[in-house]
């Protein structure tokens, strides 16, 4: 497994297994267990995914040493503000049933972001969190919040795929050594992306599928990817991307697929309030 060095000195596996929208009815447990069998050592969950407990159970039952695993979770906006965030961090630790979380993110850029970040900084100093970061921060939101943080985020997790390569944001992050993590790295199954003639031609050349070509492009470009699946063959396939490399010319052509348009705009007015109503993680 390839790893990327974070700006805090820790390292992160380039491919993680995402569990967004996988139910907590045993499905998450089974998917994470299969992912670990397939070789994943990086699992990405969140309080608002409602499946931290199943992730923790699968990790514990895997028999894999904790030091060999990288676990990410995220604080939900309902728990923003210093005191609420302190409680939210402890609740994630309790549900995951682990002593520390490798990477903990502010899930959304709304509400008392500075207060929540202060709690993450404190928990990092206490050893509860190894690395801390943010999610869904656009260039303008980054410029709004980050200059007021005492500690630079190690990661910004955002939507990213060959059709939406976040080029402006990546320039800003690169200046501070911040790693970009991609959610929806395969465009959420976008057929226009998966069936793009250039991508399918590379798949034929390297005897891979389109998803594997896309994921290979992204990690070669320095992006951490978080593919999600509940199908064992697809879970295994998404990590089978380390036995080939794209050429410089192929990378350049893949860069040319960028449209600059994503499916999610964190700057949409009222989005924070809408998300808070949609995902209520406790009374």
Can you offer a commentary on this structure?
The protein is an alpha/beta fold and 283 residues long. 40% of the residues lie in helices and 15% in strands. The protein has twelve helices and ten strands. The strands form two sheets. Strands 3-4-5-6-7-8-9-10 form an eight-stranded parallel β-sheet. A two-stranded antiparallel sheet has the order 1-2.
Structural class assignment: alpha/beta
Give the overall pLDDT as a whole number: 97
What portion of residues belong to β-strands? 5-15%
Strand count: 10
Distance between the termini: 40 Å
Q: What's the tally of helices?
A: 12
Helix content: 40-55%
Give the overall shape, derived from the CA principal axes. globular
Order of helices and strands: EEEHEHEHEHEHEHEHHHEHHH
Gyration radius (Cα, Å) is 18 Å
Largest sheet: 8 strands, parallel
């Amino acid at each position: 497994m390839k790893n990327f060095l974070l700006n805090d000195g820790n390292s992160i596996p380039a491919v993680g297994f995402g569990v967004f929208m996988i139910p907590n009815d045993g499905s998450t447990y089974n998917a994470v267990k299969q992912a670990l069998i397939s070789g994943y050592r990086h699992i990405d969950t969140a309080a608002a995914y409602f499946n931290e407990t199943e992730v923790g159970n699968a990790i514990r039952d895997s028999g894999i040493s904790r030091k060999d695993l990288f676990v990410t979770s995220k604080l939900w906006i309902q728990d923003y503000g210093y005191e609420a965030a302190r409680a939210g961090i402890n609740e994630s630790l309790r549900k995951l049933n682990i002593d520390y979380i490798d990477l903990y993110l502010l899930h959304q850029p709304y509400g008392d972001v500075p207060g929540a970040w202060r709690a993450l900084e404190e928990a990092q100093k206490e050893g509860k969190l190894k690395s801390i970061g943010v999610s869904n921060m656009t260039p303008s939101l980054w410029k709004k919040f980050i200059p007021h943080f005492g500690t630079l985020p190690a990661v910004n997790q955002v939507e990213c795929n060959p059709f939406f390569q976040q080029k402006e944001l990546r320039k800003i992050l690169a200046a501070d050594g911040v790693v970009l993590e991609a959610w929806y790295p395969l465009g959420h199954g976008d057929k226009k992306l998966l069936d793009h003639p250039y991508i399918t031609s590379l798949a034929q050349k390297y005897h891979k599928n389109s998803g594997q070509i896309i994921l290979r492009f992204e990690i070669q470009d320095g992006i951490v990817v978080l593919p999600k699946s509940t199908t064992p063959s697809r879970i295994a396939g998404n990590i089978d991307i380390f036995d080939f490399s794209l050429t410089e010319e192929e990378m350049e052509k893949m860069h040319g697929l960028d449209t600059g348009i994503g499916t999610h705009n964190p700057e949409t007015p009222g989005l924070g309030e809408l998300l808070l109503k949609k995902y209520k993680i406790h009374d």
